[in-house]
Model the fold of this input.
Amino acid sequence: MTDPRFFPPRNFAALPPEHSDYARSRVVILPVPYDSTTSGWVGAREGPAAIIDASENMELYDIGIACEPYRVGIHTLPEVAAHTGSPQAMVARIEEIVGELIDDGKFVVTLGGEHTVAVGAARAQGRRIPGLSVLAFDANADLRDSYLDSPYNHACTLRRILEVAPVVQVGLRSAEREEHDYIRERGLPFYSPPEYRRLGPQGIADRLSDSVYVTIDLDAFDPSQVAAVGTPDPGGLLWDEVSELLATVARQGHIVGFDVTELAPALGPRANAQLAARLTYRLIGLAVRE
Amino acid sequence: MTDPRFFPPRNFAALPPEHSDYARSRVVILPVPYDSTTSGWVGAREGPAAIIDASENMELYDIGIACEPYRVGIHTLPEVAAHTGSPQAMVARIEEIVGELIDDGKFVVTLGGEHTVAVGAARAQGRRIPGLSVLAFDANADLRDSYLDSPYNHACTLRRILEVAPVVQVGLRSAEREEHDYIRERGLPFYSPPEYRRLGPQGIADRLSDSVYVTIDLDAFDPSQVAAVGTPDPGGLLWDEVSELLATVARQGHIVGFDVTELAPALGPRANAQLAARLTYRLIGLAVRE
Amino acid sequence: MTDPRFFPPRNFAALPPEHSDYARSRVVILPVPYDSTTSGWVGAREGPAAIIDASENMELYDIGIACEPYRVGIHTLPEVAAHTGSPQAMVARIEEIVGELIDDGKFVVTLGGEHTVAVGAARAQGRRIPGLSVLAFDANADLRDSYLDSPYNHACTLRRILEVAPVVQVGLRSAEREEHDYIRERGLPFYSPPEYRRLGPQGIADRLSDSVYVTIDLDAFDPSQVAAVGTPDPGGLLWDEVSELLATVARQGHIVGFDVTELAPALGPRANAQLAARLTYRLIGLAVRE
Amino acid sequence: MTDPRFFPPRNFAALPPEHSDYARSRVVILPVPYDSTTSGWVGAREGPAAIIDASENMELYDIGIACEPYRVGIHTLPEVAAHTGSPQAMVARIEEIVGELIDDGKFVVTLGGEHTVAVGAARAQGRRIPGLSVLAFDANADLRDSYLDSPYNHACTLRRILEVAPVVQVGLRSAEREEHDYIRERGLPFYSPPEYRRLGPQGIADRLSDSVYVTIDLDAFDPSQVAAVGTPDPGGLLWDEVSELLATVARQGHIVGFDVTELAPALGPRANAQLAARLTYRLIGLAVRE
Amino acid sequence: MTDPRFFPPRNFAALPPEHSDYARSRVVILPVPYDSTTSGWVGAREGPAAIIDASENMELYDIGIACEPYRVGIHTLPEVAAHTGSPQAMVARIEEIVGELIDDGKFVVTLGGEHTVAVGAARAQGRRIPGLSVLAFDANADLRDSYLDSPYNHACTLRRILEVAPVVQVGLRSAEREEHDYIRERGLPFYSPPEYRRLGPQGIADRLSDSVYVTIDLDAFDPSQVAAVGTPDPGGLLWDEVSELLATVARQGHIVGFDVTELAPALGPRANAQLAARLTYRLIGLAVRE
Amino acid sequence: MTDPRFFPPRNFAALPPEHSDYARSRVVILPVPYDSTTSGWVGAREGPAAIIDASENMELYDIGIACEPYRVGIHTLPEVAAHTGSPQAMVARIEEIVGELIDDGKFVVTLGGEHTVAVGAARAQGRRIPGLSVLAFDANADLRDSYLDSPYNHACTLRRILEVAPVVQVGLRSAEREEHDYIRERGLPFYSPPEYRRLGPQGIADRLSDSVYVTIDLDAFDPSQVAAVGTPDPGGLLWDEVSELLATVARQGHIVGFDVTELAPALGPRANAQLAARLTYRLIGLAVRE
Done:
């Protein structure tokens, strides 16, 4: 329906069918409203709907990168149903769906939900792309081997992803001592905001391979810019810093997919969902230019 | 898509395509996120999305009326775009769209937005159905001939509807003296909650014709049950009273369409949107039984 | 200024100067944004502004009592400054101001703020009107002799008022045992909602003298109707019950002044402030009919 | 510490050690901040802390039942850790802990969290008390055999409890058709609010055995009184109705334990937590009188 | 009234009559609670009251510019009534009122409400002051010729203002492609935050004429500092940057009036209204020094 | 109880008894939920509980200072009861309690509540430690000799503290002219954020003695990072700036105690409480390293 008396349908960026039909779209948005293992404050399951709603309140020419990302086509899938039997089963479901979409030629954008959903998405990518590396934005180390009785707790996300690909992390400022020891012993390239500032975006990009999966826990941002997360921690990254790093990585290599997770919209102003929507849109523009 | 790994799509009652395709649906939901003339507290434009979201959090067998209303098919249209040139033009747009849908054989449920949207919907019905009467739920008289420089202000809704059909109003408890004089001079059947309780549901039904359009300004409810309106006023109707009246009217005559308006979700708890969703669903069940 | 291009100024009921000038007004609204002794949840100091704002969103013909209370003139004073030296000094300030206003021929409506403000207002009345009785709406006994080291804590309000006039209380459902014993030993006419329902409004009116001061702690209402108070307690009075009791008392005797206290607007929906505004307006209509 | 310069410690009802030490307490409060299977709106994991905080804002003489329930001693345990491996493992943990407490002679009050936590508590009781019956307050049937891939989803709670004891349910107004058929086919004593009103509290009490476990999903209440639940549904029970039924059951039989679940505090005003605290306190008073 | 027992009356900066009487005041605050054409999130009509309330919570010596702006006298007018007939009529009303005030020798500060209100204010200035230029702060281009069927939609604000005076814009980071093409084709001096940083405040001031009208859409600020706007967009200007630019412009030329618009207070913390109040106060200090 | 089936008890940092018993702890947290003299927006009394709750959502290895501050033992006391007789009496109570704790060998961390609580804490330190200096973070001068009729109003905090020790203040950007004159006349080392940036952390540290008490009014921070205060003012300090200054002071001298005050949690997102918790934890780590 392109009747001008109606607003466009509810989908990412409020696109009309010619830019959002599954068949004609290079990009698919996969919303995963799952937060069953969250240990901090609650509500990430409302993240995907909030990001999509905010994206409808967004102008479509992105001045920062001088392009209109929607032109490659962006299809919004229905929300993945929670598997409430166990987080392991939920991760397996996400891996399966993302895998099917990759095999169908799509660029998959996963919207969480808690960070755990990244495990399924990264596994699907890692098992298909040899030499994949992962760029993770996160305030927390997420390196526990198990937490609250589950290896699939959101506090274990990067530990699980490390099993399928090397990870470069940016934004780190909070951990348990065991996690810190693990980082030091193995020399993992996990960087705090001050370390990132010293290293610069090119310094990070140099540590990545040609094919990069990007996983974003929004708590990597400073809480002044994203307060709506379960574990906000002061001293985080700023929008311009994240944007510049993503642009550098996109220029140099090949971003194969990404996720944006942990937005718990009720914990902050709506502007936080708007940032997440703009971030998603910009990263599509950087990764999938026509 | 009926893949069990996904939640149903975002539409009224979260129905799968077999119960929500336009062609197979007897009922259409027309969301109208318009509130440009509101004089009280703000936010009715967010009502339609809140009602639809809440409807997805609703079980589909309605014990109160012992049926599953969704079985007649309920299609959710995209939101009507605001015509910001003037409220008159917006009312004309709604009348036009509702008219097209009626002519296409649909039972139209309009979700406001401010009560003004009812003028367009009632006009489309009134010009097609001879002998139509209107049952209005409202806390306010809405009988000003013009307000804030416009005859299409939401404070004039029932005055405008009276031009196309006789109106029986229930829930009245707030007016300006001029409106009260207007009611008394013309002997309009406008009833306060205590008057309604004396008269009983049958007493109201007896004042209606065979074909009834129902227009609901949610401020008719007591603010304990619906606080999320721009002009809440204590001493309102209760859920059981409204339900019983609607059931009585549906048994006796023919409900040809209805609207549910003035939900401003940010002004009350989410439970208010849930009530509006349940009310919409129940009224579909009462009006369009298989 | 009666320029129709402007909304009326911010004052109770948004009245133009001809109905709100001090000299021409029979009624004065005295806002007292004070809550320094509150022991429960916080925020009653924002009550007066919230009630006045809500009153501007109110139609001026009150159908329930069939009159336009504003016609006697209602002047809104600026807010009384908090005396932060001690609650005793604050109570003295309120007593002084209310006394001056009474002596100037005004009917004084005090808007709290915490219930403590009623002590000053009731004292000013009690010391001027022989034989005064007090009708108190309250969920709590408020009969402690001292609380948190002060005899002017809001938990001592009715104990202090009892020192100047006999009190009939309605709405009681929460107390410490010492307070309950005090009530029983002295045979104080303090009634729970079920007791009030058995007794009826006339039963209460019969216990009052000809001159009645009314003090309303909004927690007397059921939290479904007023949640925005520091100590909400289930099982309270309903709007229709309070309205009927006030009408009965007004018919029989002489209401000399009143206060409405303890609205903490951030703790409930805006509709709660609207109820408080409507209650204030109705009680003006009942007490000061032309 | 009974230093009068300090407020009492944070525990249920803010009790000093002499009324809250584990050893001297007949009652234990077991907070279970778990909501991993929730399908509606989110946040029940914040329920226990909100109820306990509200209980500190409560006067301790309960006028409605004329007693001071705290005198039997009420000990507040730390919060049960979420087992995020699976809801089945979480239910097993709760059953184990409740069982240990029962075996230690305690009266156990479980505070949810989602309604699933009741399965563990009811099982622990059912396996120890022959002839136990269960009185359930709920808006939903909760009779699915499995939901979102788990038999321990909160939508299956009463189905699981039925496996250990017969259930009488009050408050029903929402179900899927399969659940409704299941009720009718087996003649389960599940009652809607209108049915309860016809039957009366004694009619319910007559259907229970001598030993009764009470499980309360707060959505049984009308949303005007409790909006802060994940699936609010209009037409619910009122405080006075629930109170009277509980008093009737307590007079007639033996209440062996209970739970209060599904408060999601961010979804409604704080007054909802206060009702839950008062309900918990009153039910202790009814069940464990000295 | 300068009775020390009362707080000052409700007006901008809570000034006593000697600093706020119309006759003695050089500055008038014109609140315009209008938001009928808003396309994003809702609530700018509550902006003026929120800014004025916040201004009462502000100390009056501004350390940043070392002066007490209130000494020139600041009078707060009542709120302009919404003309709900059409936005065109509303703009005409604002132009008329602002014109009358200018002709009466006042420095006019317009508080929105949506950005559309600036059209009326800028027209009144532009038609009186030859050679006027406009400095606009905005995240959006606002250059559509018509939007949602109206040339007076808030998305057309700068297009309409361009018809009366040249505009220099700062803060741009969001547009449709057509707007971007329009900017490029005509070489409009519209600058994104990074472009502003390169150019510096003097670079902007050099592009302005001697008489400058300043129009501020608060979404020019970074959402970390102002989240309470309908279309927040990351990557915005910071308080220190805006302050420095305003000081530079004020030093060099003559600021003839200004507006502060688009604050939708419910969408962010109260601190956002405080920033808007402080911004208004500082700009008065810069523009109208004694 | 170290049963792994339970979360740790509610105390600062959620520490088990071995790290939080009074006897074994070097640090005590003293929560003071007092805000009776607040003149701006309300709610600082809810600050201590919010900070403690947030601290339980915090990982315990602080990467920024590379240590685990909890290892010195942190005991959380119950909340100090409000003395509602007068702020003077309340300040005396705090001084008394803090003094007893110092005399018992503890490092005392006071959590406000309004800034007034710092007067009691600073006095207790100043009277025991010769040569003490005070480092104050504050947006306001707090130098009034009396305000709202009390010398113990929170607007007088630094004036009162100056009576026991010299004060260096950082963050100043708001004052009345009298306060500004007082600063200039006496040459008080009170610095605005730009002045601090010019001076650098070492420049501040050089103005302090060897023994430093730190008092933090959180409104010193920029409102983008801490909006939840009663008098937010733009142009404040950033987390990294405050952290660096505290680290510099801790390296050079001896921090003998500190307070964190004025968090009014309802006025901003929860992330603000998290910042306050992290700040408290970091300052413990800096001041009391093993």
Q: What stands out?
A: Strands of chain E lie at 27-32, 74-76, 107-112, 133-137, 167-170, 190-191, 211-217, 254-261.
